[in-house]
Amino acid sequence: MRRRDFLTALGGGITVLLADDVIAQESGRGGMNRQTPQDVSAWLHIGEDGMVTAYTGKVEVGQNARTSLSAAVAEELRVPIASIRFVMGDTDLVPYDMGTVGSQTSPTMWPQIRRAAAAAREMLLDLAAQKWSVERSSVAAANGKVTSGVHSAGFGELTQGQKLVRTIPANAPLTPAAEWKVAGTSAPKVTGREIVTGAHQYPYDLKRPGMLYAKVLYPPQFGARLASLDKSAAEAIPGVKVVREALASPRAGFGADLVGVLAPDPETASKALAALRADWTPAPAETSSKDVYSYFKRNAGGPASSAGLTAYTIAYIAHVPLEPRAAVAEWNNGKLTVWTGTQRPFGVRSELAGQFRLSEENVRVFMPDTGSGYGGKHNGDAAIEAAILAKAVGRPVKRNWTREEEMTWAYYRPGALVEVAGKASADGTITAWEFHNYNGGAAALRTPYAVSGAREQSHQTPTPLRQGSYRCLAATGNNFARECYMDELAHSIGMDPLDFRMKNASNDDRLRAVIEAAAGRFGWKNRKKTAGRGFGMAAGFEKGGRVATCAEVSVADGVVKALRVTEAFECGAVINPEHLRNQIDGAISMGLGGALFERIEFAEGKILSNRLARYRVPRFADMPVIESVLVDRKDLPSAGAGECPIIGIAPAIGNAIFDATGQRIRSMPLAPQGSIGSPSA
């Protein structure tokens, strides 16, 4: 159903088009820039029954975007959240969007939806004043109704049979944050009941009539090529079909062909996959997880760093989403429809169009709310597999990745070598700073502290593994190296780490505020040193937010235990306090894994840590007591909160380990085998 037909089905009402301030770029394959077409710029529909339907290309991956965007509509349109429903991530119905990436929902989509809702509110007031022949100033909107003296009408009653289109002015009258009634409060999660009762259908759960289940034959190592294939035993299994199709764009380490088996149920598909007999031509492996850091430095393009720098290492790690990649694909009269868990529905649409040489209008991508992404679901891997196989057999096909496939064939957070050097005067002023990241990326490369003449560079290198976006990108590794080295500088001149940071954060009052807030709530100045216990802190900024983290750890027989974490976070005006705390707690929990345990081990072109039995994520027993401190700046625009809070936990723990043991560990993870080893150089 196209958007035009969908609106007809909703009935008469108001449609608000946003023609201004929509800057969108093509984010699928091909890399072409394009403006959002005006005919898909509708953001709100007010139905005759008073229900409000809102549209966004942003998607829900557990970050509660659906709730925060609903609050934006409720605040400006003056309707209860219960009367709002959001259509998200359906490429046939929603405005074009680059993707749910970069913590951009709050700083870009939230004000956009607010402007649309504010314009709709003003239209309703205009309409009521005209209908009742009253002064415009006497008309008010509240709780889904417009009133003026003795006159009163529900939004749906007022607009029945009418459908209005208007360009939203750049100066749409928005409600100041200090006057928010819905935004700024802890509105409950919109779909919370469905999720906790199991009623919500995730991509992994979806079914279509006549659907077949698919498994895919992957090579035994990256880059291996299929030399021969015997499919006779698999095809002898009742109900099984084996498909071999060419890929339009070969995937890294995978090859040019897709071999899949299809069956009426997952168990039979797994049995058929095991029955395939394949011979492979191996590919040489360039490096392993043991020597990848020297590989980065050796293969760096451009000028390398100076001599005499301290080296930090950052391991490749997996996203480990709660729900692995999943997709259902269906063809109908030459049009492809795919349901899949992705952060970039329009990007996946472009990938699918390129694979099948279709116009994008003949590809529709749905993104049901999915079980987390963490930056790892930008591509349409499962969607492409499902679509190729569905076309080959002429039936809907479901392709659910296993956990082992997810941890082997998805992309990883890049590994990195970081080299840093600096000097501090006796009074604590940083007088020199040099910082280099090899392979990891440039996010949070720049120091947040006041340093004149800093030299900071990101060096691109070849990567032996498929790598891509991860929650806060390279900022996790860059902030780890910088904040640990900040402690090294502080200790070199005998200065307290808190005082040292405050001394050098003179250029950023927002950063100083979160450092003071975290240290004050944690009781940094009153901490008491005991054997086997240590305290550490870290700070930083990224994606428009400011964060400071204090941690207390114990170290007994080399085993590190995070006991207590206090984190202060400022991201402008707080949209939903409870959900923001959830984001902070989740970021700390996830960051704890990268800080202490998580790393991808690989050798000879194979992933060795390809299942959770071989790859440790944080467990309940690993969790510290977490206290979050919200610094609410109603005078500042709201920034995203999904990423920045993750960057403080690793350096805070690393610095606390040093405080407890005198051992400076310069690698993430800090304790990959569950305990710390000998001191690093």
List keywords for this structure.
681 residues; alpha+beta; Aldehyde Oxidoreductase, domain 4; 3 domains; five-stranded mixed beta sheet; 16 helices; 24% strand
CATH superfamily of the largest domain: Aldehyde oxidase/xanthine dehydrogenase, molybdopterin binding domain
Anisotropy-based shape: flat
Strand order of the largest sheet: 10-11-8-17-14-15-16
Q: At the first level of CATH, what is the class of the largest domain?
A: Alpha Beta
The average pLDDT score comes to 91
- Note the total helix count: 16
Distance between the termini: 63 Å
- The CATH architecture classification of the largest domain is 2-Layer Sandwich
A few lines on this structure:
The chain is α+β, with helices and mostly antiparallel strands and 681 residues long. The strands form seven sheets. The protein has a seven-stranded mixed beta sheet. It has a five-stranded mixed beta sheet with strand order 20-19-18-13-27, with helices on both faces. It has a four-stranded mixed beta sheet with strand order 1-2-3-4.
What can you see in these coordinates?
With 681 residues, the chain is an alpha+beta fold. It folds into three domains: 3-197, Aldehyde oxidase/xanthine dehydrogenase, molybdopterin binding domain (Aldehyde Oxidoreductase, domain 4, 2-Layer Sandwich), CATH 3.30.365.10; 204-284 and 325-400, Aldehyde oxidase/xanthine dehydrogenase, molybdopterin binding domain (Aldehyde Oxidoreductase, domain 4), CATH 3.30.365.10; 416-668, Aldehyde oxidase/xanthine dehydrogenase, molybdopterin binding domain (Aldehyde Oxidoreductase, domain 4). The chain has 16 helices and 27 strands. It has a seven-stranded mixed beta sheet. The longest helix is centred in the first third of the chain and has 28 residues, at 105-132.
